Amino acid sequence: MAIDAPSPIPVPAPRPRIVVAGAVGSTERLLKALIRHNALVVGVLGLDECLGPGTAGYRRLDAIAEGTNIPYADFRNINDPATATAIRRWEPDLLFVVGLSQLVHRELLNLPRLGCIGFHPTWLPEGRGRAPLVWMALEERPGAATFFLMTEDMDAGPIFVQEPFRFTKDDDAEAITRQTEAAMDRALDRWLPQLLRGEWNPVPQDESRATYYGRRAPADGIIDWHAHSQTILSLVRAVTRPYPGAYSFFRDHKIVVWRAAAAEELRWTGVPGRLLVHDPQKGWLVGTGDGALWLNELEVVSSIGRRTADEVLRVGARLGYVSQNELFHLRNRLAVLESRIARLDGHDGHGSWA
Question: What is the pTM of this model?
C-alpha cells in the first residue's frame, strides 16, 4: 500500500519496477531520465489525445515508450478501472504521476507496492495546489523541482529531492517552463541513482509552512486595462504559451495578447485600453492605468474567419468592453425588440390581428 511515513524502506533488488503516467513536457523529461539511468520502466500511461487540446503543453509519450520496447496505454481518467487493470498487470513497485492535473484516488495510490511519486515545481510545502508556474510568475517567486511521495492530501507527502531554479520578471511562461525542466533534469540526475540503489528516505513536510494556490481557468486571463502596466505585463508573461493567453475584446473579436513590452521611453497619457500608436516593428501601443504598453504579438479570435490584428484594429480603437456603454446599447436593442414583438402580438380584441 502507499506509504505516507518517512521510515526508511529499502527498495529490494533487482531495480524497482516503475510505471510512468502523465501528459506534458515534464512527463516526457521524467521518462527520458529514467531511460537514461537504465531504470526498469515496465509501463507508460499517456493521456488520450482527444483531451490534448484542453491540456497546456500536451505531449504524446507512445513513440518514446514503443521506441524502447516499453508497454504503453492511453487513458482519459487516471482513476478509471481500465487504468487500474493495466497497472496491476505491470506489477509496479513505484508509479510516477507527473504532469497531470487529475487527482489520484486512494485505490490507485495503493496499487504500487511502495507508492506513488509526484512532481511539483514549488518549494513545498509552500505553493501546493493548482497552476503553480502561473502563480509563481505573477508573484515573481523562485521555484524548486520537487519529487515527493503522494498521499491523499494535495502535494503534502514527504519529499525525496528539491532542486532550486530562478527566473526574472522578464521571463515568460515558456522561459519559466524551460527553467523548470532544466531543474527537473538536475534533480533526477542527482536523486535517481540513489533511488535505483535502494535508498528510500523521504523527509516529511513542515505543515506549519504550507501555503496553497487555487485553480486558474482560461477566463482568468482577461486584461484589466486600468491596472498598472507592470501588472498587465506580468499577466501576459505568466499565461502566454503553452497556456491559453491573456486577452481582451474588440467589438465581436477576442484579442489574445501573446507578447507585450514596457513603453518607458514614451511619455504617453491615454485612456486605458485605447490604441495610441501602431508601429510595424513593435506592434500596438495601448493605454494602461499608469501609462502605456507595447502589444508585440496579437491573435484575433473571430467567429467570421481568420483575421489579423492589422485588419481588425485601428489607432483610436478601444480594447475591452465599457460596462455602462454596453448596458446602454443592450437596453436600446432590447427596447427595439420589445417594440417589434408588441406590434407582432397586437390585435383588435376580437381575435383578429390589427
Answer: 0.86
At position 259, the amino acid (one-letter code) is: R
Q: What is the mean pLDDT of each run of 10 residues along the chain (354 residues)?
A: 47 78 95 96 96 89 96 96 95 96 92 96 97 94 97 96 94 94 97 93 97 95 96 97 95 95 85 96 95 96 86 96 87 91 70 46
